Structures are given as structure tokens and as C-alpha cells.
Amino acid sequence: MFVVAAVGDPVRTAFLVHVDSERHPSALAAAFEVDEWAGELAPQDDDIEQAAFFPLPEALELIGELDSATQREPIVGYLTGAVAPGTTWLYRNRGTEEKLVARW
Q: 79: closest CA among 93, 62, 67, 92?
């Protein structure tokens, strides 16, 4: 997803996710917290059908419904404050099995 906007400087790292899978032996995703931005969401990827902002309770409910722990756990941990900002999550995915190997 792309945001056609001006984004302020990142305040801090929200979280990092490193996934070791058969298809992608070393995939890394980083999420950053920003103080301000201006513009509109404008997805530039055909796989994205819709992009929107949600109030925190609704976002947590929607994210909590995701089947993938790799997609769900880091962002829920960050948004609820259950895990410190900047935490790195290391997952090993084999077929349909997702395993959290380490978190620091």
C-alpha cells in the first residue's frame, strides 16, 4: 500500500518482523510510528482491494481475526502496548505451520 502524502519523520520503530520461510528465506518487514502525515491512501498494488484508517478498537478487532500469527501478533502487541516499541519478532514458517522462534 502506498500513501500519496507527505509523511513526517518517523518517531520510532514500531516493530520489526523477520520471517524465515521456504519461499522467502529471509523476509524483513519494518513498521514505523509517525507523528503526522497529510494526503490520501492510494493503493498501487492490484492485490489491495481497499485501504482505510480505523479507530483503534475496531482495528484491533479486525487484526485479531487474521489467521496468520506472523501478521497478527506483532501489530496487536504493539498497538495494545503489550510489547515494547522496537521489538523484533522472528518467525519460521513451513507450509501452514507458523512458529515464533524468538522475540527481543
A: 62
> What's this model's pTM, rounded to 2 decimal places?
0.77
Distance, CA of 1 to CA of 50 (rounded, Å): 9
Instruction: Tell me the pLDDT tens digit for each residue of 52-65.
Output: 888 899 999 999 99
Domain boundaries, the chain: 9-35+54-103
DSSP string, 47-104: T--------HHHHHHHHHT-S-HHHHHHHHHHHHTSS-TTEEEEEEEETTEEEEEEE-
Phi, psi of 23 (to 5 degrees): -80, -40
Query: Distance between CA atoms of 17 and 15, rounded to whole angstroms?
Result: 7
Q: Give Cα 90 distance to the centre of its chain.
A: 13
Rounded CA separation 69/53 (Å): 21
Q: Are 48 and 1 in contact (CB under 8 A)?
A: yes
